[in-house]
């Protein structure tokens, strides 16, 4: 990004240090800046929004977020700040449950300004995961569901195989949700209950699943 878009604030200086790290790590082609800094709408209170592309980008981003000279994790009182930041989007989640989910994300606080920084993993240009998929959207839905397959849940757009336990709110075509449990192989039904909002899709050619919850960028 053009350095003239930065305003000289503490968070801008943090971003410059992060950009220098990315360049030195040889990851400038797989980690980028987005959000307010990209469009020149940043100020001293701005967050830093990054994106990373594909497996190599994700590995580089993991290394970046482990660099304590640049980024600190959400710990102690900072976790309360993060909970307040996220709770309005996760109605009904307990503090512990939300923190477990947030700990999986690439996010933290910049060491200098203490600004929130996050990185969204995106699919690489050559990713063929969704190539050949035939999908029919059947409506918006909010559910409590068990994840049956999360192998394609890392990058955006994420696709999860799910088995629906409870429908919280739905505009989906009648009968689709009830069919979900029957269509997923019984050996795939397992493990975790999640609260999710996405687009329920009638899928073909995504592993063994005929239905999946598709999540857009967060």
TrEMBL record:
<protein>
    <recommendedName>
        <fullName>Nucleotidyltransferase-like protein</fullName>
    </recommendedName>
</protein>
